[in-house]
Structures are given as C-alpha cells and as structure tokens.
Amino acid sequence: MTPRIRFENVWMTYGDQVVLERLNLTVAPGEFCTIVGASGCGKTTLLRLLLGEETPSRGRILLDGEPLPAEPGPDRGIVFQRYSVFPHLSVLGNVLLGLELRASPVTGRLFGGARRNAQGEAVAMLEAVGLGQALRKYPSQLSGGMQQRLALAQSLVMHPRILLLDEPFGALDPGIRRDMHELVLRLWRENNLTVFMVTHDIREGFYLGTRLLVFDKLRHDPDAPQAYGAGITYDLPIGQTDAGTLAEVLGRPPATSRQPPATSHQPPAPGGER
Ligand SMILES: Nc1ncnc2c1ncn2[C@@H]1O[C@H](COP(=O)(O)OP(=O)(O)OP(=O)(O)O)[C@@H](O)[C@H]1O
C-alpha cells in the first residue's frame, strides 16, 4: 500500500538553527500519530511542513506517493490550540466559507441549489460535532470546547485526507477534554483520516494514538546549541510496545485506550473499528 505520508531524510533549518534533522518516517493511511517532545523541539514545524506552509530545507515529503504540494490545500486540515475560527462569521458561516471558496474562488459566494447543497453539508458537519443548535451563534458566544468543535467541523467539511492537530485540547478543562477525545476518535474513524496530533500530555498521546512519536535532539553540542536539530527518538506502535520501553519513555506504566494485541499491531483500516 502506498504510504499516506513519507518523509525522506527531511531537514528543516532557520538561518543557522537546525530545527529538525534526518527525519525518515512512513505513515500508512488511517494511522493516528501523536507527537510529543520538549518545548521548542520542532513539533509545530513538523505540522507546518505537512500543511505546506514550510518546505523542507533538505529532503522531501511525499503525500500518497507524490511530492507534497508546496502550499496548504483542502486535502490537509489543521486545528490549532486557539484562534482557528473567524470571529466575524457565524458558526454556519465559518463552515460554509471553505465550501464557498472552493466552488467560487473569486467571489466566495454560492447561489441557488449550489448554496443549498453547501449549507446542507455544513449543517450536517456541525451536527456531527454537536453544534447543530448553535448555527447562528458567533465564536465569541461559544465556550472553548465549542470553538474547537467548530474548528474541527471547519476542517473536516473539506474532506481532508490528513488532519493536523496542534495541541487542540491543551486549553480545555479535563472534563471537556475527555468529551473531545471521544469526538476526535469518532471523527477519525468516520472520516477515514490520517491524523498527526501534537500534545504536551503523553497520556493523551497514548490514549488517542495508534502510534506515538517522541521528538528530541539526537545529538547535542553545548557550545553550539543550534547546530543540531531534533529527530524521532522513539516511534512506538501503541499496543505492541514492550513495558520496559514504555516505562523508559513515561517514567511509569502507560494508560492506553486499548488492550495490547497478543501479536502484531496493525494500523486500523480506514473507517474500521478498533
Ligand atoms: N518561522 C520561523 N523562523 C525562525 N525560527 C523559527 C520559525 N518557526 C519556528 N522557529 C524556531 O524553530 C524552533 C522550533 O519551533 P516549534 O514551534 O516547531 O517548536 P515546538 O516543539 O512546537 O514548541 P512548543 O512545544 O513550545 O510549541 C524554535 O526554536 C523556534 O523559535
């Protein structure tokens, strides 16, 4: 099967600062990769490379076997910790906008049947994330959790192949975060998504991911801290990783959402149950 994403010896530098180095990574369709690492080690930079907002300084990234487009596109959706939605548009307007711009890039307006179809799609997506009762509200009238539901709907209505999540639940209360975990797992299954999610919470990473990627510097020169970038120090298929490795990474045993399978770990079939 062609990998959904493939990094081939990717480096990312800003001036003389090496942020990421020697990244080699193959991700199958339907995997849910959670990404952890120290602050400033390049996690957001990795997502921006996948989005097409940045291009690698060296190496290349392939999307379904083709070079990744050098600009953001509807096949890659992103949700940030905050500020993903447009404050001056209603909930419905936020989700409609992408559909309108895709169909009518110049005016961003749709008319007649095309507009009704787009509205139907947007409403269905908002209902799927639990915002069916809030279509006419504005983002300032929504709680933090509702704003993140809106941001998810805004991305998913474009039917992306890849969903990029940059600490999307970091600012939410624990109870709300739990609800969002269940929502994102359902959306992942229902929309055949391949997910890359940055989190500071390693337990969240274990709970949600099918695969946990740990980023850290592979080498370090105290006299030249910018000389070396981060790479993947652990690539853990969750459910198949031995207890010793997990304990080393976590400092204690993991809490995963799944029982480890007895033998091998298979990424879930897109849309399949796990
Ligand atoms: N556009 C840019 N120009 C110059 N340096 C940048 C740019 N973007 C990121 N950096 C630098 O790259 C490094 C990695 O930043 P990045 O935001 O990817 O880290 P991170 O792991 O996501 O951090 P955090 O966990 O704190 O969000 C930082 O030192 C940052 O200052």
TrEMBL record:
Pfam families: ABC_tran
Polar residues composition-biased segments: 256-266
Cited SMART domains: AAA
Residue ranges of domain ABC transporter in the record: 5-242
The keyword Transport appears for this protein: yes
Alphabetical UniProt keywords: ATP-binding, Nucleotide-binding, Transport
InterPro entries named among the record's database cross-references: AAA+_ATPase, ABC_SmlMolc_Importer, ABC_transporter-like_ATP-bd, ABC_transporter-like_CS, P-loop_NTPase
Residue ranges, annotated region (Disordered): 245-274
GO MF terms held by the record: ATP binding; ATP hydrolysis activity
Protein name (Swiss-Prot/TrEMBL): NitT/TauT family transport system ATP-binding protein
Lineage per the UniProt record: Bacteria, Pseudomonadati, Pseudomonadota, Gammaproteobacteria, Chromatiales
